[in-house]
Amino acid sequence: MTKEINTPPVCDYEGSDYQDKFWKEGGRAYEDGAEVLALKRLLPVGGKHLLELGAGAGRNTPRYQGFERVTLLDYSTTQLQQAIQYLGSDQRYRFVAADVYRLPFAPRAFDAATMIRTLHHLSEPNIAIAQLRECLADNAVFILEFANKRNLKSILRYWLGKQDWSPFTPEAVEFVELNFDFHPASVRKMLTENGFHLDKEISVSFLRAAFFKRVMPLGLMLAKENFLQRGFSWAAISPSIFLRSTAFPQGQEALDMQTEAFFRCPACGHYPLADTPPELKCEQCGQTYEFKDGIYDFRLK
Ligand SMILES: C[S@@+](CC[C@H](N)C(=O)[O-])C[C@H]1O[C@@H](n2cnc3c(N)ncnc32)[C@H](O)[C@@H]1O
Ligand SMILES: [Zn+2]
Known about the structure:
Layout: H1 18-24, H2 29-42, E1 47-53, E2 67-74, H3 77-87, E3 93-97, E4 110-115, H4 125-134, E5 136-147, H5 152-159, E6 173-176, E7 179-181, H6 184-193, E8 196-204, H7 210-215, H8 218-232, E9 240-247, H9 252-256, E10 279-281, E11 288-292, E12 295-297
Parallel strand pairs: 1-2, 1-4, 2-3, 3-12, 4-5
Antiparallel strand pairs: 5-9, 6-7, 8-9, 10-11, 11-12
Bound molecules: S-adenosylmethionine and zinc ion (ZN).
């Protein structure tokens, strides 16, 4: 059985120096610290296996301490190579190059997942979220970060006539090619329609502005951020939002599909796909996948 899945364009990070330029040299210690605060409040204390979608260079990975295993998935092999350098050869980690629109995992392979600063690049987020639900166990926790189009700055700019798109309408806005801001209500709807129950939402990066970074020390900014996250998340007007949801149990039919398999063939959907490095071969469609220098490559060329 060949599974037809649309594969929209991927925002290409191959060879990108994003980690150094954006985070290390870009003066983003405040944004990084603000995410730490949100993750601390949203992450479960522990679990078996967490899937990190769009993991990049592994900036957030050390924060998933409570999990026995973490699989880092990213389309860019150079981002994953940086993640390997950063995290070392810890056996807890598995590195997978794949498209979030064609996930190479069997049903129920994970009991948790995160996707941070990645929905942002998806023109068809619904396809990726539906794929994710398939490889999560019932009651798995999913922490999703998205860029919020209805943030205070865009509201003010719209009211002052400096921005032509409305921050209040449900459609995503593509402000640069393959860079999208989403309306909070649309993201919530997408999650519930794909079998997730919304648990908790935290607004993040309230003070993301050069002015605050100039006049306030980092510690004070993060103290204020903590206060704002706790008191004003209900308004959902910050530039970034973290949403924790839980995968609704899927009933008997899904339970019948229960498997010990971990990989599935992203080309045809067949599982189990035996983990036989340096080459994995799908016994149904014959597609082969390489394991090289610590990275499984499931990208379909
Ligand atoms: C802005 S970076 C964020 C990295 C990391 N989550 C962080 O917060 O530091 C976005 C990442 O998403 C990955 N990405 C974008 N589109 C993807 C897709 N369709 N499939 C898999 N990864 C994708 C990029 O390669 C990049 O590493
Ligand atoms: Zn196959």
